[in-house]
Protein 1
Amino acid sequence: MSAPTKGSGSNWVGRSIRRLEDPALVIGQGRFTADLPAANWVRFARSAMASGAIKSISAPDGAMVITAADLKDVKPIRPMLHKFEYRPIGYPVLADGVVRFAGECFAAAVAPTEEEAEDIVDRIEIAIDERKPLIDSRDAIASGAPKLHPESPDNVIVQGLVKTEGFDAVWNGAHKIVEITARSRRQNATPMEPRGGHAAYEMSTGRVTLTCATQMPHLTRTAIADVLGFPESDLRVVAPDVGGGFGQKMSLAPEYVLLVWLARKHRSSFAWTEDRRENLIASFHSRDQHVSLKAAFDQNGKLLALNADILSNIGAYSCYPTTCGVEPLMAMAEMPGPYDVRQYQCRSRGVVTNTCPMAPYRGVSRPVITFTLERLMDKAAAAFGIDPIDIRRRNLIDKFPYTSAMGLVFDEASYKETLELAVEHIDVPAFRKRQQEARAKGKYLGLGFATFSERGGYGSPAFAARGMAITPGWENVELTIDPSGYVELRIGSSPHGQGLRTTLAQIIADEIGIEPSRIKVIHGDTDRTPYGWGTFASRSLVICGGATLIAAQNMRAKLIKMASHMLEAEGGDIVLEDGMAKVAGTDRSVPIAEMAREAYHQTHRFKGAIEPGMTEKGSYDPPGTFSNACHVAIVEVDVKTGKVTVERFVAAEDAGRLINPMIADGQVHGGIAQGIGNALLEEIVYDESGNILTSTLADYLPPTAHEIPVIELHHLETHTSATNTKAKGLGEGGAIGSPAAVINAVNDALAPFGVQIDEMPATPQRIRAALRAKERA
Amino acid sequence: MSEKTSVTLNINGRNFSIQVEPRRTLADAIREDCGQTGTHIGCEHGVCGACTVIVNGEPVRSCLMFAAQADGKKIRTVEGLARGDELHPMQRAFMEHHGLQCGFCTPGFLMLAVGVLEREPDIGDDELLDVLSSNLCRCTGYQNIIKAVRAAAAEMRGSK
Ligand code: FES
Ligand code: FES
């Protein structure tokens, strides 16, 4: 672990201080949405059919049941893109005439308790003229396939095409073409706290407060006000403690719109807590992609050109705000990954099917890109008869800044260095020897590598380039020292487990010399925080942290100005530390708390040199940055059962400057564990009629402590000039590289059988099926 | 809807006399009828362990038990772990070793680990891993939860 990086002041940044978030959470005083009492409870009636026209819905006598017929004034949710042949389709709050996936809400029942509401749901009857559903994206684009939405005649609702100039000539002149067809099955983010909302009407003001498990409270407010057609100021959105999100909680849940509608109409409070089954069948899914990737190499194994065809199954509707373009377009933009390749061609399509809508999930598309690309690199290594490490050495980007074939600018990074660092810790020759010995005893070990980049801290131009109607790039913060000397930071970001309160407090503490425990960070409340974009896409520490640094620097300048006045010293001689402004080399000092008091109550003493009060703002919209890593897995495959055990996992990471290494490690651990789950266990399975067979946690399998080995982490810290804190994003990286590393390792283990698994998750069934097919062949 | 029955739940040493339907789970009764929302519900089908509480000395999944079955039994929840301001060694260890991120699974893990270690203070590392693999956490990748529980186990042994 590296030493603190700041040379002066109190050096909070770079230290693994304990989290300020924890004390309340460990004593059971966290406050989650489901903890709020409500006057009325809502349960949703969800379609058991995947596709069909609704003929009738009947509700039990006397029960309060809402259907689309009651929502004539409520617009569907319609996220927008202005590019890529995007066809805007509406996601109705309650199914209106047609159901498009099993799990779609067609009615809501309201009762004084959840149980009673559930009893009503059991007695709601729906008649549907059933149609054969489309489950696989390949079926949906086949000619003659039924059309899901009138707006999308061929079921393709977003499509991107790129081709660099000169592609064909390079392709045709290549020495060798290597190709792969990869499949990533559908997965679910599965936060431990399912979604849920609580909308309460306030008589005195006519406003509604929606408390909900969201990653982006401000945009939730905008979206609901738009859909229901009322002024945003009539709605307050609060994200209290949120029990994990991983992307699933950034998309607008239609259920929340209905809760607010009910609260306004009936002037009361209405709550819904999603149960696990609803979360698995009808929250947002992800990762369901078919990718075909071809690569052209010269005779030295140098990558010349890539040609990709990506098919994303985006489910029945487009998600708000990112739209369903999020997976296919990210895949198109970032497919070349960390490799230096000048020529690139890609077609990427998002296809509608009768399945649950897809939305961002930790890593967004890059776990699949990385899996495909890294499988391809291993295949190429085999084709050239060289080591998988060597093929990567020959192709990783090593000159910065680097502009990719797609025009993305990579800032200073350490792709090769992290690879070498990981290799050092693995001791490859020793492993190869052990692998040989094990094989002789019928034990199959494998080693797999994945190198990758993680784009984080996208500023608004990145979203604008995608043609998004909403470009969530910047963050604003407000930093206040109150008259008692305590510090409050109000942010538009809205963390849910990332420890952001602590890391932001560390940044402020270094600038103004007040220790982190005296700094409170207020987030997740649209009434108390500046408009902002919440937490997703490895952005909060980079962007909100950047804005915080600016506000803290402004505050520092103000404090120094005041102190030089009060202590009659030059500004350059003032040091801020231990809660004091001191004149260096003297014993003259003044407590910052006293200065704050004077700023409020004694402004006349400063002869107009400072503004009254003690609030400074910060605003930040960076160009974006790329962190990077090399993940390495060693696995054992039991060829009799197909079971894979991850024996070792080594990650060499570079996320720029680490503000709190302990928190950084925790983020990477969590991501890697999710990635191991994605590689081996987690799969949403639909049957032919469009019903989900994995609707409990006994069927959909997030990993337990048993499946995750000790994760060995090594950090490099390339201080980037692309951000003012020199930090890069790291929330997603763990999840991006680990599936590829694990599946490459599985394939290495299976090499003696001549069997390849290019599908994730690589479940025991898939591994056994491949082995059996080989035996038969 | 069915008749309600009278049940007395002794939670952290305090009696709560409540009226519940027979179908009311212990988890719902603890949270909604007794207002102790530190116990969380993550699945209601016995897999995630977020709802783990200690009943008569045993860690149990309160979503798999009916409130009526816990009538008169001694229930401990996360709210009863600290003594006043003094945190339980397990709570301190979770903070010290970064054993939590969003904190949603944390009460369940704390009660599971405490319950097991009180019964079996000398439990080996492998058995401990077995026990901890019965609860799910989606944030931490378990690395630091395991570290925290091992550290607290050592401390609990030492302080006996
Ligand atoms: S809520 Fe009881 S085990 Fe998941
Ligand atoms: S800390 Fe979030 S689920 Fe465990």
Note: Residues A 192, 244, 497; B 100-106, 137-140 surround FE2/S2 (inorganic) cluster (ligand 2) (CB under 6 Å).
Protein 2
Amino acid sequence: MSLGLGVAQLAAPDTVRRISGVDDSATSRTVVPLVGARELVHAAGLLTSRRKNVWAWTRVAGDAMDLTALAMAIAHRDGHRRRRLLAVTGAIAGITALDLLTAVRATQTSKTGSAPTARSARREREGGSMDLTATTTIRRPASEVYAFWRDLQNLPTFMAHLEQVRTTGDRTSHWSASAPFGSDVEWDAEITEETPGEKIAWRSTGDAKVPNAGTVRFVPAPDGVSTEVHVVLVYDIPGGAVGKAVAKYFGEEPHQQLDDDLRRFKQVLETGEVVRSDGAPWGKRARKEFPQRPAQPLSDAELEKGADA
Amino acid sequence: MRANTWAGRNKVEVRDVPDPKILNNRDAIVRITSTAICGSDLHLVDGYVPTMQDGDILGHEFMGEVIEVGSGVPGDKLRVGDRVVVPFPIACGACGACAAELYSCCENTNPNAGISEKMFGHPTAGIFGYSHLTGGFAGGQAQYARVPFADVGPLKIESDLTDEQVLFLSDILPTGYMGAEMCDIQPSDVVAVWGAGPVGQFAMDSARVLGAAKVIAIDKEPYRLQMAERAGHIPVNFDEVDVRSTLLELTGGRGPDKCIDAVGMEATHGSAHIAAYDRVKQAVRSETERPHALRQAIMSCRSGGVVSVIGVYGGLMDKFPTGAWMNRSLTLRTGQCHVQRYMKPLLQRIERGEIDPTRIITHTLPLDQAEHGFDIFKNKQDNCEKIVLKP
């Protein structure tokens, strides 16, 4: 619900303003997207947090803010706009009642249902593992696709978060990835299993901050020309501060990131490089993909600054 | 350089922006000599297609002279000085879709494939000047444009045909042609085309070239219907007559054998209560289409006929007549045009004089008057059918 409202208010603020009857006010131009952003915070909190009762109360508080704002708006409107505002206020009042009920219930459950809560709290402290899978089809023979991946130093050309992979031996390598706020994560890895043209499996070694392992399989596609690439990655997410940093480093949607990585892998093998557009000129810089810049050419200064501009 | 940009809903603005540069090895930079305003630009301008940003350069129909090529473009494909028409879908030429000649479904050219995938299930090709959903590529209503995969898409014009004769090979001529080709036209066929805009006109001409017995044009603007009539097609004005009964009258009660929807989401007319229903759904953005033309085409088509959709749709439609479609054995075919597939054969048809693309041009304006151009085109003022902009 928060998600829907938030997206609507951010994506089509003018429509929301028109429906609510506040399209005559310049202030509403600022307020509507802000309220939308707030809704998204509620949604993110409710969907991801284990302490849903707290987030449910934030929604009640948000509703109270909305009702106050609407009351102020009604006092200054008449005719059609007033009618539309009254209708919207009625709807919000209904939602408030629902949110209040949900919040009260969630609070009661979290007080009484002690067993599951204690378990989930422990899981939060200790971290857990994250499995990611993704697959793509590349119009190249399996031997070629395998060979490109097996040269691990190629991985950073399409994997957004990898800075560098340096091979240190026949089966060993040193990996570094960028994390937010300039901190880097580094680890050593070894290939644990390989079948040329078919499969590569690897895992991190030593005391990696984020122990991880992966498998990539190369399967001939039914068309007799292409290769299906199936990737499985497993991360052990530690708890505490490091866990949080890791979660951030992977962004909001790690599955999406891995999908996009494989899309770039396909681009590199089929077309020779990562495709760039004016709105997304930096190719593999994941953090630069959202929000995008306008679809117009970069200035010389922007080009010079590169992806950090 | 000067470029026409999106500046918010129902607002375009010609601004000064940086010149384009080579970003990928297979890019070329083209100095644009002619570009056009397309009906599908209207969906962007009025906000029906999401993911537009203030400052996005519009335009996906353009041609010009190559002034720079990247190191990855082979000299036998393209050189500085070549005169080219640029197709609107950006296609890599190497993926599975391109191998099947489904260029507008290219798997590699949309850097925002993730967004596109969420909206459409699978990503589609990048398109010039056509929202961030289709890649965030700068468009061609500008003095210069960057053309990715310049060794795959652009068609070299080596004869002395004028810009006006070949410009529409970039989009609307192949689009209209594909609409007719998807109908699998037989010599006895009566073909009805919804929309007598530029794409509709070319769909009608193509249907005739492909051998249709009769071609019917459905629109409400008298000047558009007259244009179709001058080209030998039968006009039906939906503001004056009931379309379905007129079509039955014209076809001995069978209904048109083949129906082409060249309107898409710019449809303006519907029965009152359905139109009100659509309007409410659109206001809360739970329906993105204005589907009246498509519904009418399905209901009018003869049993066992083909409904070919080349009008652009963007998202979700309500009240789609599945019952009519299934129970009467209709075939529904559609697609963004795979322009690269049609450019050469259509260039030959132009050279042989079978199709005259210039017949639809009503206005030629300097690029700086793009805003005025959008205004008269959108509001169908001044008998505006097709505008060519000169940068």
Note: The two ends of chain B are 10 Å apart (CA to CA).
